[in-house]
Amino acid sequence: LDNMLANVPNSGQSDNSGEGIALVRASAASYLDSITFLDKDRLPATEYWADYASRGGIYLMDNTSRPNVIFTPAFMLRLGLTESDWTQLFPDKPYDEVGFYVNGSHVSGNQKNITCKNGYLHIADEVVRPLQNMADVMASHRQTSLFNQLMDKFSAPYYDEALHLSVQNYYGNAYASDTVFVKRYFNDNGVGACLQTPDKKDIPSTQMLYFDPSYNTMNMPTDMAMMLVPSNEAMENYWNSDRGKFLRSVYPTWNDVPMDVLSKFMKNHQLKSFVGSLPHEWSKLSDQKGFLLHLTPEDIDQSILACNGMVYLTNRVFPPIDYQCAYGPTLTSPITKVMKVAIDDNDWLKFHLYLRSLENQYNLLVPTDEAMKTYREPISWALWATEGVDKREIWSFKQIGEKIYADVYAVNEDGSQGAFKQTLGSSQADQNKIMNRLNDIIDMHIIVADNETEPLSGFIDEGNLQYALTKGGTILRVEGEGGATIVHGGGDDECGLPGANIEGGTDNIYFTENSHTFFIDKLLQDPFKSVYAVLKEKPEFDEFFSLLLGDPSVFAYFQEDKEVQAIFDQNTTEQSSGIGQIVTSFNNYRYTVLVPTNEAVRQAFSEDANLWTWNQISNEEDPALKKEKCLYLLNFLRYHFIDGIVPVAGNHFAKDYDTAARDKNNQFVKIRVEANGDQIRFGQTASVLTEDPSLYNILTRDYIVNNKDPQKATDILASSRAVIHLVDKAINYQQMGK
After folding, report:
1. How many other CB atoms are there within 10 angstroms of residue 456's CB atom?
2. How far apart are CA 286 and CA 578, in angstroms?
3. Over the range 460-478, which residues count as b (16 or more CB within 10 Å of their CB) and which as e?
């Protein structure tokens, strides 16, 4: 009876014992019924087929029988397949809630369940023909020949001795002098998996499909697969668009795209479940990685039912998230192999997961492989810049297989590359060290472009930014626009080195769905000097710096009092330490440090009797008064340390920021910042002095490393970036509040 066609006996289903869940049924047809000869002109142009092309062709057959696909009212009701769904799937066939369909042939309600002595007869409106599988559907449509040609790159002919003997037994001598092969597609999908080449070599996972479109019994009896097959026109339109530039600029044609890159594209057009992909679900339909496909009825030119799935011929392509997002261009470029491996790393760094977010917009700066050969290793350079310990190193990164190695060089006195020391990368400890630095590098080469609350956010090539805030918290100085954009890291400026140019100008700017991606000719570096080191070296900062140093006797007196904490300390523990003196209120974030002029500091003390010098506090014998004046001075100083990095950058905004000072309720005291082009005012009274470029927009970095002796450290554990400005006034918020 027709109501039994949708049932699965002994299914183990908890409800209805498997009623109404069957879609695909085995038929009496045999895989031996059809053997096809494929002449040389129709063979895929790959190494696995070349030998048979020279012989004039090859005999092919399926290794599984082709089942029937049956749409019954019970199945459609159970599945929730609506009349609107049906019209999208089969626009030329009427929706029927009483009759059913077998391979697209209709059995009306009054022509089913006709009782015979030996069974039941269902009279179809037309001959029920066996369906092609999805591979055959693609191959039989001229308008999808390009996509089919690319699918065939993942196929090979396989000899199966058992099948060959079955053919000999079934056909007698008809194929006595010929061998019949099975065409399979490389995939790792369960029972239909094809994991090795015909000569028994393992196929890399990066060169596989999600499933074999020629495997007839996939997911039966309760489901089948689904494929989106773009037309030749859709494929060419994508190739020639801005989105396809990263492919087009490297490969002459689609056929030249390597298997590991092409696999991502082909797999994104495969969905393993037809049942989970009905038209009414398309608005939330995701690819296998969970990203929306944004499939609409307007994308479909034709729907074709196959014995193992539904094939939709489409008028657009559905590129994978890897093609759409910021790092897509690195997948194909021959000059960014190091960054490709680093960004695509799935075990350590996982930046590709961050950069896949299509809800955000990014600038991704990608140093070329040549640029990655001149990395000034930050720990060694920071030790030199802050402590005068010259063990500087330059690392030259290189890609070998799926790993990154680094050749390590000493540094000459003038900062240039010196003698070779060693190669890092062969041990796990080496890889840990390399990944730590790559994490640091990539963090400062990503700029969020659409943060409306951040004045330093935007696309760097549009000419609107003088400074841009990176994901890691540092800021980059930006000049020019378009292909003439130049970007400077704080460490580059510190060492007097030129900035990074876009390699090849506009040819190496790529506009993806969520980014502007730039290939640059220099690796950008963070500052090596700490706040302490910068303040110490400039006489214009002397008065304020001496106050920040504090008085050892006062801090010794209050060493058990958690409210009294020095501004600077090395923060040494059993497992970590700062490189030199670091700002104790910093916490792996980004900051602004305001330094009043020497005269402004002296004026602040002359105007406020409550503002005592460290010498006065040290000499005070009353413990309560001593602490009161100590905290008063510390809060005066800490108010000049602002949570948030605010360079003089031509911006216009007004915004409140937290400072390191705390009120009586232990809450951070806020400061108002108003920027008007090249003038910034802090707290209504203090303005940045911009006459001398060396006294404002000074970038620094305080490092914490993974050893109590920084010279023995291997990893950067944390760091805080800051910008330092000389300002014309000291801000005494405590006095203003009285």
Report:
1. 23
2. 46
3. bbeeebbbbbbbbbbbbbb
Say if residue 598 is exposed, middle or buried (CB neighbours under 10 Å; 0-12, 13-18, 19+): middle
Cβ 379 vs Cβ 580: under 8 Å: no
Distance CA 583, CA 532 (A): 8
CA distance 200 to 202: 7
Tokens of 27: 């038929």
Residues 6+ apart with CB under 8 A from 568: 532, 548, 549, 550, 581, 582, 583, 584
- Residue 170 makes CB contacts below 8 A (sequence gap 6+) with 32
Sequence-distant (≥ 6) Cβ neighbours of residue 435 within 8 angstroms: 345, 348, 349, 404
User: Beta partners for 397?
Assistant: 406
CB 379 within 8 A of CB 369: no
Look at residue 78 and tell me whether its pLDDT is greater than 70: yes
Using alpha carbons, select from 516, 479, 634, 463 the residue that is nearest to residue 564.
Answer: 634
- Cα distances from 307 to residues 68, 69, 388, in angstroms, run 6, 6, 74
pLDDT digits (tens, 9 = 90+) for 588-614: 999 999 999 999 999 999 999 999 999
State the Cα–Cα distance between residues 340 and 25, nearest whole angstrom: 46
Rounded distance between C-alpha atoms, residue 208 and residue 211, angstroms: 8
Beta strands in 126-224 (DSSP E): 155-159, 180-185
Retrieve residue 448's tokens: 């969020």
Q: pLDDT-based confidence at 564, cuts 50/70/90? A: very high
Measure the CA–CA gap between 233 and 229, rounded to whole angstroms.
12
| Residue 285, CA distances (Å) to 247, 312, 320, 432 in order | 26, 14, 14, 38
Give the domains, in start order, of the chain with CATH numbers: 335-520 (2.30.180), 531-736 (2.30.180.10)
Tokens of 230: 């773009």
CA nearest neighbour of 639 among 569, 561, 737: 737
How would you classify the pairing of strands 36-39 and 679-682?
unpaired
Q: Read off the tokens for 577.
A: 């330490």
Q: How far is CA 10 from CA 13, 77, 676, in A?
A: 8, 21, 76
| CA neighbours closer than 13 Å in the CB half-sphere of residue 513 | 14
Give the distance from CA 688 to its chain's centroid: 38
Maximum CA extent, the chain: 116
How far is residue 431's CA from residue 174's CA, in Å, rounded to a whole number?
Answer: 61
Q: What are the pLDDT digits (tens) for 210-236?
A: 999 999 998 999 999 999 999 999 999
Q: What is the length of the chain?
A: 738
| This model's pTM is above 0.90 | no
430 burial level (CB within 10 Å; 0-12, 13-18, 19+) = middle
